[in-house]
Amino acid sequence: MTIYLVVYLILFAAPFGTLIHEIGHVLGAKLVSADKITLTMGAGSTIFRFVWNKTDISIRVLFFLGGMAGSERRMPYQSTEQIIIAALGPVSSIIASGLCYGLYNVYPNSYLLILLLFNLWIAVLNIVPFRIKDKKSDGFVICQAIRKR
């Protein structure tokens, strides 16, 4: 049973939780009228790419190795808009955790628990302000935007 849970975590829960988180950023970018939005899932060469609702979406071979959403606009984002885009990633992960919690109370099983915990973990990890080289957490972006005000 344990190997099934590990495979489920790697091939479903982590990519799905990451997708939910990145869709939060995409929604934030749409809310502040971004001109260009990209959503990339995974690493390696692109195996599937399409544009939907002004969002360029790419799925890569190693789809389970994280994701990234980005956006651009001719007019620079104001601090509040940067906060909205950055915050909606963790917020969407928290909402997903809450939904999983509700389902888990009705249908308790290990798969829902893993999805719940992964979404909670990704929300907490991303709200903590840190930077590693050029990569900034959502919390770091929020702190930077607050300091600019």
- Give the strand order, joined by hyphens, for the main sheet: 1-2
Distance between the termini: 51 Å
**Uncertain spans, ≥5 residues at pLDDT below 50?**
none
Number of helices: 4
Query: For the residues shown, what is the average pLDDT?
Result: 95
SSE order: HEEHHEEH
Give the DSSP E fraction (strand runs of 2 or more residues). 25-35%
Secondary-structure content class: alpha+beta
Helix content: 55-70%
Write down how many β-strands occur, each being a DSSP E stretch of 2 or more residues.
4
Major sheet characteristics: 2 strands, antiparallel
Rg computed from alpha carbons, rounded to a whole number of angstroms: 16 Å
Principal-axis shape:
globular
Question: What would a concise description of this structure say?
Answer:
The chain has 149 residues and is an alpha+beta fold.
Can you describe this structure?
It is a single chain. The chain is of the alpha+beta class and about 150 residues long. It has a domain at about 1-30 and about 75-149. The protein contains four helices and four strands. The strands form two sheets. Strands 1-2 form a two-stranded antiparallel sheet. β3 (about 130) and β4 (about 135) form a beta hairpin. α1 packs antiparallel against α2, α2 (about 80-105) packs antiparallel against α3 (about 110-125) and α2 runs antiparallel to α4 (about 140-149).
